[in-house]
């Protein structure tokens, strides 16, 4: 290792090869306060440097873990003492913004929010959006195929990427920087690197697809009396509005974020079983607001909602969204807490959550508690569970309750967070043996020495 | 081969192992009248039968070519005398339609149009749409990552597929029939089989994503005085309408389809340099028509269009689209003809086509002629060229003129038709050496004996 670090120092300069204290004061896991245990952290500035790093690591059989914003929640960036962390924190350039073609070319270490802001400057939008926007990176978004709050309209990160460049385990650079919306010239290699959590290659640059920024945005939070009403409302708004987000909040979540924690003013009374944030992006400045209100009125008359509050300014809109997105409040209130991200058929959701709640109360009668919210239109729920301690046994017991029913109802143990180390041993619940075998075949073909993010994703 | 055919006959029955005349009376190539040369055509009815077929072929090192609707235009389904054709014509079942989840589960041999119609029956839509809808199959759409006229709104086939099942070269079945909109549980294996033209596996079943059918549709054909006006109109309609299609017709195409061939009545005078078909799908039954017309009026006032005709009935709408989609008229008028499908940055299009026209006239002063149309918003042009003969030398000369400039301007030699055998030797113009090497690595990992659609895609 010492000799390798010396060679890396020659390439990167001493200020970009961190060891000792400089490593320990960093974290490799957003959900834990443990220091990073890696042997060293190296910080390349260019694809070429990263290629040199991997060429050396490949020769020395040195395993590596790539770090973007380290905001993942499945222990996908954890690094042990024999591993080297490659941080992309210096690779944050916007290389080109093409307003006509609607593309932006960036280095992978750039934070998501910087891309969103650069798109807005040319009256376009980069539609991927999630709570960690300020610190998560485009490379991390790609590696985990990030989702977020606008998937219902614009799809996941996979759909926002036109081209990318990756460094393979042996240092080879595969530059597939396509800018065309359509390109069926051979296999679509970028798909290999999207969502494979840094185990098949290290994404260094990307061509992102931008969308026109639409002139009319509407946002409301509504109180919904039953789960049936919630799904009917989703169908109605999908067909009658230009929906860009439909976020559901169970009472457990809304009440905690407002009345119980005092963190946010409650815009609606706290006694409704469900709440939803409904947002639209439309082209008709003249009629969209009117149509949005008319639809809410109709929903009220039909008993689909019992109350509603419309955001009449960007500040009010952000207040509504903060109730959904302020994850720190959840951690304070529920910690030590287990966080889950599952997908399942919408009709199965209500009973799945109710069953889970009941089983949790049985198994942990004193401290057991869960809080549910999520992207209803995507079939994606986030479930936060506390049982009073974070011990291995408690975790295992809770995981069993959360994951086991998903195999039967055709859901997934990971909707958008990925597998990392946390869900690796449960992968078999969402993927069959043949699928896992083909995954291992791909891993072996692209990273035969097993150097890239070892121990993540695959059992 | 004889022994293999005997074993296959035992599995499938004699009526499903075609040889001799029964093979020769079929075609393996839409663009040619040559008979199919394959040693035999086998017709499995189930995934299990197909798996048995491939197990036997793998043992016998027997190469195979899979046939869907055989409407591809890049010689991707051509089979030679030592190859076996696997036709999916008996695998046309709709296994399940889930109106709540918005999914349809089908066998791969089902025609696209049958899927569209089954979706419409539950007030949903399957948004992939292209001229060959009546005969092309879902399996072929997946294998070629088909595009079509609504890509601008709904994306290509890749985005319509939630899950799929494929039989590998050795007969193993990888069933990855995910129904969730979001599933980040491990590598997204389906991406391997989408767009790889049957060279990595044979798609047998798929879970398709449906979309709500929107209540309001508008359609118009407009005459556009300049290419700049055409791109400005695209930008304007993208931002102000709920665009679902924006098809551009060069004068060369429009005039041929109407006045010259007499095949279609000209809804607009034939002297405009460009035409466009503009279609929207919206949620506002009340205002969409009015807004559509107002925008066309504005475009007229700003000089972006010189004339327009609105479809006031479904019949009129189909008349407009027939001008764009009637490929038989082109073949009759231009045959022998070379057909191209390229993508390039929109700002480069006008001069690319003009240069090509000029060079063609220089190289083939007597019979050289081209006709251009395409999916403008996708950066995708279809160019039909005739030079009077279809000989190898002429083809090569025309290909050079069409493909060579694309490498420089960052375009692609195949936007949506794929590579097949036709463009294999030009792949290097759109993909670099490293990309082609990784493609070969994948091919080797999944089909080490090279049995699946040999000679297609990879040089």
From TrEMBL, chains A, B:
Record's keyword annotation contains Oxidoreductase: yes
Cofactors demanded by this protein: FAD
Superkingdom assignment: Bacteria
Gene3D superfamilies with a match to the protein in the record: 3.30.465.10, 3.30.70.2190, 3.30.70.2740, Uridine Diphospho-n-acetylenolpyruvylglucosamine Reductase, domain 2, Vanillyl-alcohol Oxidase, Chain A, domain 4
Swiss-Prot/TrEMBL keywords: FAD, Flavoprotein, Oxidoreductase
PROSITE patterns (UniProt xref): FAD_PCMH (PS51387)
Family: Belongs to the FAD-binding oxidoreductase/transferase type 4 family.
Domain spans labelled FAD-binding PCMH-type: 34-213
Stored SUPFAM superfamilies: FAD-binding/transporter-associated domain-like (SSF56176), FAD-linked oxidases, C-terminal domain (SSF55103)
Pfam families: FAD-oxidase_C, FAD_binding_4
Listed GO biological process terms: respiratory electron transport chain
Protein name: FAD-binding protein
One Gene Ontology term of the molecular function aspect: oxidoreductase activity
